[in-house]
């Protein structure tokens, strides 16, 4: 089964120089909006004016994955310090028992980022952060950014430097896929899992359905998801229970 969420159907929230395009129910965007897809609870594209800040307060028991698309962003998490993110960088906040305040602030120019929230297998634990730099993906088209499966990173060493995926407390994988026109990606999964693919740039065919930039595709009941690029394309994919 595949369902397409076209950009015109997404939630749109704007305040204080921050614009959110929401694939799932979030803050004032509710009504008929889907609440989640598997363990993927939130998928927002966040656009920040120069120096604008997106804020979260008193979040707990959630894995917050941030991928910077454009510009520079400073992430500040209470008790866990600051991180400077550049395009392509991936950052994870594991909220655990709770974080008081987390902010994502653009530099002196506008910035854009994706944020995925995943529901962990178990609640609680100490809050943590992780960072994976864009340099790790040099020469690759299909990159595993974050994973809740130990076998994906058996060593669990050199986090953020060796190119290993950032750890998650959810049985999920977050991937970034870049394809040239005519290129193809095969995503292996299980029929009982939930895959959500966002077309960040370009246009693709997903299981026989055309999906343009900004479109999200919710897939389940498949053991493989085949993506063909109709033009140079970039996708972010979440595969979860």
Automatic annotation (TrEMBL):
Residue ranges, annotated region (Disordered): 146-166
Protein's name in the database: Pirin family protein
Domain Quercetin 2,3-dioxygenase C-terminal cupin, residue spans: 164-239
UniProt domain Pirin N-terminal: residue ranges: 18-118
SUPFAM superfamilies: RmlC-like cupins
Organism in which the protein naturally occurs: Nguyenibacter vanlangensis
Family assignment from sequence similarity: Belongs to the pirin family.
Gene3D superfamilies: Jelly Rolls
